[in-house]
Design goal:
Length: 1233
């Protein structure tokens, strides 16, 4: 009897175990997919077994922490297990092995670079710091002067001398299901005959997700894991046979061994398989998934099946009553004059299902180019692997030449039909890939030295080369790269998140019941079947809300009507989450659709559906300006949304108290006061009865500003009704469906300019898809959108302009705040029309940008004065130090020599506004206690999300009190200790909370000053004891009134923001015009940081935001059905960047300036770096512009968009195919921007 194993700490997205098999090999595995019963005979090590702060931490844990490879810490245990397992097998790994080992891990915070760097410290090759990318150590300068050397020294973000050495010896029948493990092959055949519907389970990589996400149920499992007949490799002169029980990792090892021993002509199929095995899933899945299971379970998506088919592979089967004959045929046969290749294209280079894959083979008549045998198999174009057999048959006897290729392309398109409403969409793109991959195969056989043949390599990311100010006093913690306060606990798995909190007596689990319709009346709800299930305590609906169920426009439980798919209609409380989830499925809701159902921005405009009145900023006389320009261009830009994909999904633990209607909520949020407010409203109690406690959360990025308040109210109502603690942890799919994300945007522009590139007039309209409820209206009801961020950027204010913002009301879940909040979308529109102007003027985009930049002290459109000098300096340094112009020339030369691959460069400037233009959102308090032993407790209103806010507050307190950081502790953020706290957002966390902590510490030091003056040689503890004896209070509430910002929308003016962050970024890409794939070759980022309080944390913020921006602008695609159903609700369907998306060369430089407004002259950098991802977007467009194209700029520049923008004979063939009448089918997905 068995249940599927669950994570011992559920806060790890892919929690890894190291499994030691009898052969002595160690494998990382994905815990949530490993059935407990499958672990018989294996030694299992969890991250807690690797090392602990209670005993001894492992060098892997230590180095990941000290290299600043953790931020929110939620993914850190998985990273530790991947590197740890590699080191158990390879104590001195290569950088390539490090990259490969981490390929299956996801991180949303760090940008991966410091994680890889921590792993590379175990490599044999040198890891000295590379001064300015030169490859030389900063200490190896020619000048021997100690002073000069100190001035030039590149001060690293960590000290390798502190690392521990690696010691390889340091390692450490269910309720409804029957698990059967056969001892022999005959037992297996007997069991399968007796239980014909029972699945065979080995790796569980296909069955596990089906059980978890598709609600499959099997009462009996048969696991033949230990059968030797399924675990073998048999090589003969004719071929090789491999047991179906071999894991994909073992298959990879076996094939490598065979390839190294056999002649090249005998291993065509082997090498094709190895190529695809490198990118198939991640290392953890490859260690678990079996070759036989993969072949059988993934008939449509498999990367291996088309190659096996093309390589004449066979599958040996056996059933009861028939003699096994495993050696009668070979898995891979050896043939002369036989060529086999595998080809694929996926949304992401590694760990992603193929959009289209193919296996192709050809055999020629001896010593000729006459086709004797030809096979072409395609995956992801039908329900199974599809053979183009008729095409191949017609080509037998033909010469391998261009005419053959042309006929083959036409015939294969006729033979392989993809319906217009096919699941997965991208019909024209997939058709194009069918013949583009065929063309690549054609070139490979010709053995032409064509650049188009080569796939982009998976490179090992480089080290970062930023400098820390060497003049900062060592004893002063401010300005130094202090390790994240919780980093060690992150890496040992001992950092406690909401769902790590121990179970409470009588605790219940909550599962949501969500709407399946976008706009409908609720006719009836039947909960009887759900209530009858075991373990179910209650079903909670709108009738159970004692207070306001509709608070400030937010509906906690839908009643009478639903307004989007994913709206919470009810919840089920049960003794286990499995019981609650099962019961939620049994609730029957009858709907009656309501028209109109509005999903897209275009539909909202058609129905005049808006959330609130438009916001407009005007400068100059636009109408008049248009009369005195040369050309006028008009266009529109679509920018799709983005999912936060924080590692820890929304998590709440609600604890009702026995008296006075009190309730305590432990949760991950950016705004505890907001949660307190909503819960109090839902329960109809004063806010002083509700305590919200927040210690840390596994990422937020704006997604935990507003939505936790709604979910907190939902869970509090359940706790109130049942009178029992409620644990409400959203599954990934539910979280993505309910909480939504970044606003999709449609930008329309009309630009008037002179022939020299000077822009004179701009009329721009922005429409965002706000969803069904105006959450922004609540959060920003006095300011709406940040107009500077949405409408105006560093290059758009030197001319007459009209900028309008409208938020469209649609029947989608309400979109919400996301890192940069509007800036990443709105500035794409500005950069797009700048690029369009440059094209019209036949000028480089960077020249038009520079022409229209601010040159001197200026005023924004809302009449706020600012100095653009830091922006100009960043722009200049970026151009020079990235060798931008030399790179452009090199790219032009590359493009002349390569028809099917193109390179492009782009540089983008930035002026990013910090803060909220409403003063009362900037106020904050802090509480500082000094205890009699000299230890200090700091409490403030900010939330630790990943950004190292607690770490920086410790640095501030240490600096102000002049005591070691070890004396200072931060526990948690709570509405009990610091009431009425504002949201931790807008890059303001350190700014405002630091000021409050500083104020409290300075007040304390003022009280202590007379005592210190009398005993200057005394110790801190002595001064504290003396102060207590003299009855001096050692507790202070610090307060920061906030930046006095304001914005008058009626007048269109105000002192909207306290300051700006400036910068510039340059990226270079290479694009495969045949597939739409791209590779990021280099990125240089120059960010105006003024004075960095903690360079390591700030660089981590910039890098993490940049990689998140790459995802937003290139590969992250949200797919919606025409009915408003979100398809992309899992890591399988929604692809965030992995380690392979890091630039091959990556440089981040903090540019120093003065910022007297902020604490210690620092600047908030958490959000601004998101926009740097657009440098990759525009570099892609620059590369595409070098190819024949149909140019319509939109975001993201996903592979489909890139490929279909490049025009060639293959896209022409696709567009010549007669199309189905659009009225005869419903497309699988639609664009909602």
């Amino acid at each position: 009897m068995a249940n599927l194993v669950q994570d011992s700490r559920k806060h790890v997205a892919c929690y890894k175990y190291a499994i030691q098999y009898p052969l002595g090999c160690h494998y990382p595995a994905t815990a949530c997919l490993v059935p407990i019963c499958s672990l018989y005979g294996a030694a299992v090590t969890t991250v807690e077994g690797v090392g602990s702060i209670k005993t001894r931490i492992h060098p892997v844990q230590e180095r990941l922490a000290k290299c600043h490879g953790t931020q929110c810490g939620f993914c850190s245990p998985g990273m530790v297990m991947s590197i740890y397992t590699l080191l158990r097998n390879h104590p001195e790994p290569t950088p390539e092995q490090i990259t490969k080992a981490l390929g299956g891990n996801l991180c949303r915070c760090t940008g991966y670079r410091p994680i890889v760097e921590s792993g590379k410290t175990f490599c044999v090759e040198s890891t000295v710091c590379e001064l300015k990318g030169s490859g030389k150590c900063c200490m190896d300068q020619e000048d021997g002067s100690l002073v000069n050397r100190w001035e030039k020294m590149c001060t690293k973000l960590y000290d390798e001398d502190e690392f521990q050495p690696l010691d390889p010896s340091q390692s450490k029948q269910g309720e409804r299901i029957t698990w059967i493990t056969p001892a022999t092959l005959n037992d297996l055949l007997e069991l399968k005959a007796n239980f014909p519907k029972a699945p065979l389970i080995m790796g569980n990589t296909e069955l596990g997700p089906s059980i978890k996400f598709k609600n499959e149920f099997h009462p009996v499992f048969i696991s033949p894991l230990g059968l030797p007949e399924l675990h073998f490799v048999n090589t003969t002169d004719d071929g090789v046979t491999i047991g179906a029980g071999y894991s994909l990792a073992q298959l990879n090892d076996a094939l490598h061994c065979i390839v190294s021993e056999q002649p090249k002509e005998k291993t065509e199929t082997h090498r094709a398989l190895l190529k695809h095995l490198r990118t198939l899933a991640g290392a953890q899945i490859r260690n678990m998934a079996t070759s036989g299971g993969h072949v059988v379970s993934w008939p449509n998506f498999s990367d291996l099946n088309p190659i096996l088919a093309a390589g004449n592979g066979t599958i040996n089967l056996i059933s009861k009553g028939k003699r096994p004959s495993f050696n009668q045929s070979q898995l891979f046969s050896y043939l002369q004059w036989h060529f086999v290749f595998g080809l694929r294209m996926a949304q992401r280079q590694e760990n992603a299902f193929a959009i289209v894959n193919a296996g192709m083979s050809v055999k020629f008549e001896d010593d000729t180019n006459t086709i004797k045998e030809l096979q072409m198999f395609y995956g992801s174009v039908g329900p199974t692997t599809v053979s183009a057999s008729q095409t191949c048959k017609q080509l037998i006897g033909r010469q391998w030449d261009d005419q053959m290729l042309s006929d083959a392309c036409r015939w294969v398109l006729d033979e392989i039909y993809i319906p217009p409403a096919a699941e997965g969409g991208m019909v024209e793109y997939r058709q194009t890939l069918i013949i583009s991959l065929l063309f690549k195969f054609y070139l490979k056989i010709l053995k032409l030295t064509v650049n188009a043949l080569e796939d982009f390599p998976i490179e090992t990311p480089p080290r970062n080369s930023d400098c820390v100010d060497p003049h900062q006093p060592l004893q002063d913690p401010v300005g130094h790269p202090v390790m994240h306060q919780s980093a060690i606990k992150h890496t040992t798995g001992e950092a406690v998140y909401t769902d790590d909190m121990p179970c409470i007596d009588q605790e219940l689990f909550l599962a949501p019941i969500t709407s399946t319709r976008a706009h409908a009346k609720i006719i009836s709800t039947d909960i009887s079947e759900a209530l009858a299930l075991p373990g179910v305590v209650d079903v909670i609906t709108a009738e159970d809300v004692p207070g306001d169920n509709n608070y400030q426009g937010e509906i906690f439980y839908a009643q009478n009507e639903v307004i989007c798919v994913g709206q919470v209609v009810g919840t089920v409380a049960a003794d286990t989450y499995a019981h609650a989830r099962e019961a939620a499925k049994k609730v029957k809701i009858t709907y009656e659709d309501i028209e109109p159902r509005i999903i897209t921005i275009e539909q909202a405009l058609e129905h005049n559906s808006f959330l609130f009145d438009e916001k407009k900023i005007e400068q100059g006389n636009v109408e008049q300006a248009f009369k005195y320009v040369d050309p006028i261009i008009e266009g529109e830009v679509h920018v799709e949304g983005q999912e936060h994909f924080y590692m820890e999904t929304s998590s709440i633990l609600a604890l009702p108290k026995e008296e006075d209607k009190e309730m305590v909520l432990h949760l991950g949020t950016q705004y505890p006061t907001h949660v307190q407010e909503y819960v109090a409203a839902a329960l109809n109690v004063p806010r002083n009865r509700i305590a919200c406690r927040m210690k840390r959360t596994g990422g937020a990025f704006g997604g935990k500003v507003a939505k936790p308040a709604v979910l907190g109210a939902v869970s509090a109502v359940a706790a109130n009704k049942t009178g029992r603690p409620i644990r409400f942890i959203l599954e990934r799919g539910d979280d993505m469906l309910i909480t939504a994300g970044r606003h999709p945007l449609l930008g329309k522009y009309k630009i008037g300019f002179m022939n020299n590139g000077v822009i004179k007039a701009a009329d721009v309209e922005y429409y965002v898809n706000g969803g069904s409820v105006g959450i922004i209206l609540y959060l920003h009801k006095d300011l709406s959108y940040k107009s500077d961020n949405f409408c105006l950027c560093e290059i758009s204010l030197c001319f007459a302009s009209t900028q309008v913002v409208e938020a469209c009301k649609t029947n989608l879940p309400s979109n919400t705040a996301f890192r940069g909040f509007g800036f990443p979308q709105g500035t794409v529109v500005v950069e797009a029309y700048i690029t369009a102007v440059a094209s019209q003027c036949n000028l480089p985009p960077e020249e038009v940008k520079e022409i229209n930049m601010y040159k001197r002290i200026s005023k924004t459109a809302f009449k706020q004065t600012f100095n653009p000098e830091p922006s100009r300096r960043c722009w200049k340094e970026c151009l020079e130090k990235s060798s931008f112009y030399a790179g452009k020339l090199a790219a032009e030369e590359f493009n002349k020599k390569n028809y099917w691959k193109k390179r492009g460069l782009a540089i983008v400037p930035m002026k990013f506004s910090i803060g909220i233009p409403t003063a009362y959102y900037n106020q904050v308090a802090a509480l500082v206690h000094i205890y009699l032993d000299g230890s200090v407790l700091v409490i403030h209103g900010g939330c630790e999300l990943r950004q190292g806010l607690y770490t920086k507050m410790i640095q501030v307190a240490s600096h102000e009190l002049n005591i070691p950081q070890s004396h200072i502790h931060l526990s948690e953020t709570s509405t009990v200790t610091v009431p009425n706290g504002v949201l931790t957002s807008e890059s303001m966390g350190t700014d405002i909370n630091g000021k409050a902590v500083q104020n409290a510490c300075q007040t304390l030091m003022a009280r202590l000053h007379p005592i210190i003056r009398k005993n200057r040689k005394g110790k801190w503890e002595d001064w504290i004891a003396k102060a207590f004896e003299e009855s001096i209070s050692l507790s202070v509430t610090g307060y920061f009134r906030g930046y006095q910002t304001n914005m008058d929308w009626e007048k269109g003016e105000g002192n909207a923001y306290p300051y700006y962050v400036y910068g510039a970024a340059c990226s270079e890409v290479e694009v495969d015009c045949l597939t739409g794939a791209h590779e990021l070759l280099r990125t240089d980022i120059f960010m105006d940081a003024a004075f960095s309080i903690n360079p390591a944390l700030d660089i981590g913020q910039i890098e993490g935001a940049f990689i998140q921006g790459i995802g937003f602008y290139t590969i992250e695609e949200l797919k919606y059905s025409p009915e408003g159903v979100l398809y992309s609700r899992s890591p399988d369907d929604y692809k965030i960047p992995t380690i392979t998306e890091i630039p091959e060369e990556f440089y981040v430089t903090l540019v120093r300036s003065q910022n007297p407004v902020a604490i210690y002259s620092s600047k908030g950098l958490g959000e601004a770096g998101m926009f740097w991802g657009s440098s990759v977007l525009f570099a892609i467009y620059d590369a595409v512009a070098a190819a024949p194209k149909t140019f319509v700029l939109s975001s993201p520049a996903a592979p489909e968009m890139i490929r279909m923008t490049c025009v060639d004979q293959f896209t022409d063939m696709i567009r010549e195919i007669p199309r189905d009448d659009p009225s005869t089918f419903t497309p699988w997905s639609i664009r909602v921007s």
